[in-house]
Amino acid sequence: MGRKLLTEHINVEGIETLDVYRKHGGYRSVEKALKTMTPEEVVEEVKKSGLRGRGGAGFPTGLKWSFLAKPEGVPRHLVCNADESEPGTFKDRQLMSKLPHLLIEGMITGSYALGANTSYIYIRGELLYVLRILEKAIAEAYAAGFLGKNILGSGYDLDLYVHPGGGAYICGEETALLESLEGKRGNPRNKPPFPAVQGLWARPTVVNNVESIAAVPVIVNEGGDEYAKIGVGKSTGTKLISACGHLKQPGIYEIELGLPVEEFIYSDEYCGGIWKGRELKAVVAGGSSVPILPKELILKTAAGENRLMTYESLSDGGFVTGTMLGSGGFIAMDETTCIVRNTWNFSRFYHHESCGQCSPCREGTGWMEKVLHRLEHGHGRMEDIDLLVSVAKQIEGNTICPLGEAAAWPVAAAVRHFRDEFEWHVTHSQQAAQPGAVYPGALVTV
Amino acid sequence: MAKITFDGIEIEVPDGTTILNAARQIGGSIVPPAMCYYTPLKGSGGKCRACLVKVAAGSTKDPRPMPKLVASCITTVQDGMVVENTINDSVLDVRKGIVEMLLINHPLDCPVCDQAGECDLQNFAFEHGVSTTRYQEERRTFEKIDIGPLIQLHMTRCILCYRCVYTADQIAKGDRVHGVLGRGDAAEIGTYIENIIDNDFSGNVIDVCPVGALTDKTWRFKSRVWFTKPVNAHRDCPKCAGNVVLWYKGNEVLRTTARKDQYGEVKEWICNECRFEKKETSDWTIEGPAHIDRSSVISANHYELPVLNQSVIDDLPASTQRELEQNPPLKLGS
């Protein structure tokens, strides 16, 4: 049984209230940081912890914090990215609705470390009920003196606001998020300048995922070195994995990084295997935008080693035989899943969510969706398969923000690993277009 | 000052110059195309991705290449930067892809489009595109919308460069009436809701449009541009500088536009009175035929030889330079 650093008390009755949260050791990190540590020491602890951004990219949080520009007389901001909208990822929603004070505690400690006096939680528009929970918790924190002027007599001031978005996926991209927070259309900005230099209202800004910020109190309480002992190599600490799809026990699991993927899927402590006694076919390991992997490659790397739930092990083999840990949205698909239909579904999402600012993504996402729609509905041609790969390649790397890649990777990977299934959709188009049709594997002779 | 090497040509430019503007100082065929960037419009650029170039070395301090292609219109130069544009095949391949992307939802109605002949997309596709398409799906279409009595928006042709949005923002000084609605390939330029842009300078959105999405209703379907003669003229205008180009067919002024430089960028905004109302020769002081620098079918009634920039010639091998002097096939620029 792995250690639970974030979710240890998640099922305690009334943990969303300040009193119960404090009884279970809440807000210790605020007292410790504000009374005994300088902001630089807090940043140093986070650096030592090796914490990596939990939103998807896995960039070291401490390093991100140390890049923050600190010009004289210019306010700085910490912004929490709670715009969780990647298909397959639903960890932050749960964390915020159950443990709102953990996020607020992290925001206070983090803001102190960065010298920010106004901080924001940008929450996805659909999560209005979570917004209300957070606002209630923030009011409690103000009343208890953890927010506002002169927090705990330390002379440090902090105001914390929750701001709901309109429910656009693109606003999870940090610069689009900042535009939206400023009240503008959520279009990603051209970079550079990066938010660490010119972010919110052109002031130095750090944007962190909910889970990254929630890990800060743990790191400050236990010490960065202690935190870094959990995990394997450069993947330290624990990670929330939101497991969904054809699993016996889907749900949110806090795992120690380094857990073998096989154990995560099949052990009763975690997902308990595939439902209805079926076989695993494929896994999307980190939210819909990471490359899909077939069973053989998700359990073992191409070199035959056990695949672990770490940033490095999952990306072993690059995109040819590997994938990414991403945001931890773990989607398992059983043998009855049609990969073409699934890819079309993902593609439809990215087509719908592209902001339309830069041409490769605006036009390419729609194009891929239409081609996949045709393939799935029995009107595909053999050359469409290579066309998909080619369009994905034209988008990848040529866009303003990573949404282009997020749309291109799943399509390219699906064709890479399941090409026969795409071909079967062309050769047996009538059969494949039937609702619930499943690729029978061995039948393909062409 | 920063010294950069662009396609093997060295040039020194002030710090803060973008790669695209550095290339424009060199001039000639090495200049990356730009479909959305527009120098007079603050904030424009970075969207169409037509100007992507390879940075083979970031700077003298950090000579590592940049991992991705960068948009040359918004990336500023660093001392010692080495940029590859026309000499890098991957750049040209990506550009071909961008043309394809821009054209999949663009109607190929050039034969009936007023912009044909002076269309940035037409030029871009002609230089970098392929003659066939792999796109078989239905294209997106929109109804035509009138933005006021003088401007028509045909959204089907729009490539969402945002130039008109920045123009409207700039002339309206913060009062936003013209923007983008919707997302992805369903995004559309809109004046909420079919409002008119109530501003004396609103006609400039027509000039900045790289395609035929925003057209002058006093000019629509009057003539093909190459059958008209551009003539520089000016008048005393209380609102703008009054320097314009009149487009004549016979003795008739068919339309009035602002003066543009060789990259199609407006030199001075003109007001709606000059653009839409003054259509008599007697309203204007004629200066003479307008010179069209751009490679285009329209020039002052004759085709001109391309001008080769001196700094390009300096970089040519000595033997080629000698040959050029003895036997000049091109008109030499200064």
Q: Nutshell version of this structure?
A:
The complex is a heterodimer of chains A (about 450) and B (about 325). Chain A is of the alpha/beta class and about 450 residues long.
Could you characterize the architecture of this molecule?
Chain B: It is found in: Membrane. The complex is a heterodimer of chains A (446) and B (334). With 446 residues, chain A is of the alpha/beta class. Helices cover 43% and strands 12% of the residues of chain A. In chain A, the strands form three sheets. A five-stranded mixed sheet of chain A has the order 8-7-11-9-10. In chain A, strands 3-2-1-4 form a four-stranded parallel sheet, sandwiched between helices. In chain A, strand 2, helix 7 and strand 3 form a beta-alpha-beta unit. In chain A, helix 2 runs parallel beside helix 6, helix 2 (28-36) packs across helix 9 (210-222) and helix 3 packs across helix 6 (100-114). Chain A is globular, with a radius of gyration of 22 Å. The N and C termini of chain A lie far apart (48 Å). In chain A, 55% of the residues are buried. Chain B is α+β, with helices and mostly antiparallel strands and 334 residues long. In chain B, 20% of the residues lie in helices and 20% in strands. Chain B has helices at residues 19-26, 89-104, 120-128, 163-172, 204-208, 272-277, 310-314, 318-326, and strands spanning 2-6, 9-13, 52-57, 70-71, 82-84, 145-147, 151-153, 178-181, 188-191, 214-216, 229-234, 243-249, 252-258, 285-289, 307-308, 331-332. The longest helix of chain B is centred in the N-terminal third of the chain and has 16 residues, at 89-104. The model of chain B has no long low-confidence stretch (mean pLDDT 87). The interface between A and B is medium-sized, with 30 and 34 residues.
Mean pLDDT of chain B: 87
Point out poorly predicted stretches of chain A. Answer: 442-446
- Whole-number average pLDDT of chain A? 93
Can you write the helix and strand succession of chain B as a string? EEHEEEHHEEHEEHEEEEHEEHHE
Query: Per DSSP, what share of the residues of chain A sits in E-state strands of 2 or more residues?
Result: 5-15%
Please give the order of strands in the largest beta sheet of chain A.
Answer: 8-7-11-9-10
How many domains in all of chain B?
A: 3
The assigned CATH architecture of the largest domain in chain A is 3-Layer(aba) Sandwich
Residues in helix, % of chain A: 40-55%
Span from first to last CA of chain B? 22 Å
Query: Main beta sheet of chain A: strand number and arrangement?
Result: 5 strands, mixed
Low-confidence stretches of chain B: none
What is the global morphology of chain B? globular
CATH class of the largest domain in chain A: Alpha Beta
**Separation of the first and last Cα atoms of chain A:** 48 Å
Reported by name, the CATH topology of the largest domain in chain B is Alpha-Beta Plaits
Strand numbers in spatial order across the main sheet of chain B: 2-1-5-3-4
User: In terms of quaternary structure, what is this?
Assistant: heterodimer
**Rg over alpha carbons of chain A:** 22 Å
Keywords (chain B): 2Fe-2S, 4Fe-4S, Iron, Iron-sulfur, Membrane, Metal-binding, NAD, Translocase
Subcellular location (chain B): Membrane
Protein name (chain B): Fe-S-binding domain-containing protein
Family (chain B): Belongs to the complex I 75 kDa subunit family.
